[in-house]
Amino acid sequence: MVKNFKEFRLVRATQKDSQFVYNVVKDWLDRHVDHSVTALRMPSFVKFSKTKTTRYIIKKENTSIGFVHILANNEIGYYMIPQFQGMGIGTWAVAQLMKKQPRDRYFATVNNMNIASVKLITSLGFKPKAIVYEKIVKTRRKKRS
User: Fold this and answer.
1) For 30-60, how does the pLDDT look when each residue is reduced to its tens digit (9 = 90+)?
2) Stated pTM of the model
3) Residue 131 falls inside a structural domain
4) Within-domain flag for 114
5) Is residue 132 part of a domain?
């Protein structure tokens, strides 16, 4: 667990950061299929890079190690590259994001099975608001006539 966050900073993301952000999200989704609250499919890079969001890159010295973002509906998101997960950096980064982007309320969509993310968000004072139920129905292929 990191005790001193002086070597970390949040930097407003630019278009140049889009590929890094895209790769971090894609990698996370590839490794954590069961942690997504809704079935997420990665859009094309072009479509992804046009998403309306305020995003900050988490830097350790000059290295990008993750990002945090806030959408127009006040929903926050956060991703860290694997070697920096579980160190408290994500919690620090979300807290910094909320200082930089003050709102009356914030939201986060977190899968209950993602214990680390549940701990992160509840440590910042977030409370459960709803439950999402899911039913997966396998579709049958139509027979060709």
Assistant:
1) 776 665 555 456 666 566 666 778 999 999 9
2) 0.81
3) no
4) yes
5) no
